[in-house]
Amino acid sequence: xxxxxxxxxxxxxxxxxxxxxxxxxxxxxxxxxxxxxxxxxxxxxxxxxxxxxxxxxxxxxxxxxxxxxxxxxxxxxxxxxxxxxxxxxxxxxxxxxxxxxxxxxxxxxxxxxxx
Amino acid sequence: xxxxxxxxxxxxxxxxxxxxxxxxxxxxxxxxxxxxxxxxxxxxxxxxxxxxxxxxxxxxxxxxxxxxxxxxxxxxxxxxxxxxxxxxxxxxxxxxxxxxxxxxxxxxxxxxxxx
Lengths: 115, 115
Hints:
The complex is a heterodimer.
Chain A: E1 4-5, E2 10-14, E3 19-21, E4 24-25, E5 32-39, E6 46-52, E7 60-61, E8 64-69, E9 74-79, E10 88-96, E11 103-105, E12 109-114
Parallel strand pairs in A: 2-12
Antiparallel strand pairs in A: 1-4, 3-9, 5-6, 5-10, 7-8, 8-9, 10-11, 10-12
Chain B: E1 5-7, E2 10-13, E3 19-24, E4 31-38, E5 42-50, E6 53-57, E7 64-68, E8 74-78, E9 87-94, E10 105-106, E11 110-114
Parallel strand pairs in B: 2-11
Antiparallel strand pairs in B: 1-3, 3-8, 4-5, 4-9, 5-6, 7-8, 9-10, 9-11
């Protein structure tokens, strides 16, 4: 079974609008972390936001927020007030304590911001 | 700038050859990870080192090997190269392996093209 599932291969959003990128995960480990990374066309992987499995509140970092629904095992990324520079691939990732802290990545969602 | 340095940024080599990719982790980070990203396979975990010792192994081919040196820099050796080895190779680092909130930070990647 896939550890991380991103079901949206491509998304479009109008500039200044908000967009939600979906991520579901699969783990039986009670202790894990969820991460989102951005990969622009230049190739580098940029860390955006982190959510711990025991965190009570949803993580926020500037225009990024993580909609963490533990019972549904989802960790959707919300980008508010989209900018042209947000056009990139976005990867959801999970780290489990039980498996020696390996990172598992989803297949990514390509986001295009339309002017 | 993540603080993780990878060299070379671009490399073109012929089939059957051997190359070495180098990575310097962020200052203070003890753990180094190598990932391969290709168009058809997505982001694949290859191997992880912690303070000089191998900690986890992913989908790393026998033709590939890696090591982490006492100064914590790491090298990924790719030998008997095939066309299918063409990919973006990432190095990433983190402080350790135990903390739940241990984010990994990626270098800019090494683009390898095998011709």
